[in-house]
Amino acid sequence: MPNTDPQQDNARGNYARFVGLGFTLILIFGLPTVVGFFLDRLAGTLPLFLLIGLAAGFVGGMFYVYRALRNVGRG
Predict the structure, then answer these.
(1) Which residues are CB-contacts of 65 (< 8 A; sequence separation ≥ 6)?
(2) Taking the chain, what is the end-to-end CA distance rounded to the nearest angstrom?
(3) Is the model's pTM score more than 0.85?
């Protein structure tokens, strides 16, 4: 007999949403940091662009989390 429990389906949807949020945060933090690292290697300015990329990733990540959590209750 198939499971028709809506609470379990909702839990799976929340799990998928937060796993997706985690992967997106990894990209938002990691991509500018890696780009900054490689720009530093090209320019010879280690750790200037690395720190700028890390700061940009942090700000972008916090903004994304804020918007995602703001929209959680809306469906």
Answers:
(1) 21, 25
(2) 29
(3) no
